[in-house]
Specification:
The chain contains two helices and five strands, in the order ββαβββα. It is of the alpha+beta class and 84 residues long. It has one domain: 2-Layer Sandwich (Beta-Lactamase).
Amino acid sequence: MGSVTVNAQGEIVTTTVSSGYSRSLLTDIGREVLVIFREAKQAQLPLAEISINFASLRVTARELRGGAIIFLLPQSSLMPSLKK
């Protein structure tokens, strides 16, 4: 799918995700990722990277000086094929 980079305020700086995905959805994902990083830091468990697997989507995010880069990948392409 692509990636999204958000600043510390959760605003999209750059994205390579198709315009078929709403900007508000990408903003929501970015803000939620930032909340996870901030809460971990407040709990004195700072994270460098998180990975969340949904049924059809894998979200991997890396902290970038208060912001984040978020990679969105379709889960099906990551799953090994059982057919030979």
